Amino acid sequence: MATTAGALSQVSVGSTTASLSSAAATGGTAPYTYQWYRSTTSGFTPGVGNIIAGATALTLNDTGLIPGTKYYYEVVATDSGSVTGNSAQLGVLTMPPALSPNQFTQSPLLGVLDLRFNTDTVSAQIDASAGTSVFYAGQGVKLVSNALGGIPKVVGCSSKSDACIGFINFDIKTVAFGAGMNCEISMNQNCMYLYATGAITQGAQVCLDPTTVGGVQATGNSATVVGWAFDGAASAGQLIRVMLLTPSFATA
Q1: Using an 8 Å Cβ cutoff, are 84 and 29 in contact?
Q2: What is the pTM of this model?
Q3: Among residues 219, 189, 193, 202, which one has the least CA distance to residue 69?
Q4: Which fold has domain 3-93?
Q5: 104-249: what fold?
Q6: Torsions phi, psi of 48, nearest 5?
Q7: Positions in the chain whose pLDDT score sits under 70
């Protein structure tokens, strides 16, 4: 009888660690032995190059991982007759690097407190001439081709087909952008404020909520994952900080 490896599951994950477990093998002839494998490439073939030395139990506490990186795990189970069975691969995304309690920099500017995001925030003019929507923090911005080589345009969250270059990072709530108005765009692992549309655990992955402008939820279509919750939210409507993924991972 063929040996069938058990299903893998994620127990916990940190910036540089991941704990996983495997269900026991079935079929074949007991007793079974197990070997874990890891790769940053989906669909990899288990072999010497991706073996996790010493990982031969049904549980794995993996260390030394790179923050903000997707890893794929697989277990090969072998029965007493040397018949093997491979588990389905499980993808695990480690959390981003440890963040400062205050993700902003503050410095005096001509006697006024200057409060700005400290990395990868760009100022840009937004083309809003195609619509009359009210735009919020958290709406995506895409690059639209024109004779000059492209202009930023605010896009809504109802479609998941527009690749974003970043997100509006301040809340104007009741003010509509006009053509050519200026705003700041968060890009590439910046930290910005978004609205929770439900309870969110601190450190959880968050997704754009296609029904709420500027909203994020803890679960949803994987194509809309935009980052990790820097703050927790007990209920919908709370403003939380989100550590963004590289914009190419996000759609709006």
Answers
A1: no
A2: 0.50
A3: 189
A4: Immunoglobulin-like (2.60.40)
A5: Virus Head Decoration Protein; Chain: A, (2.40.300)
A6: -60, -35
A7: 96-120, 124-137, 144-151, 155-164, 169-182, 188-189, 213, 220-224, 246-252
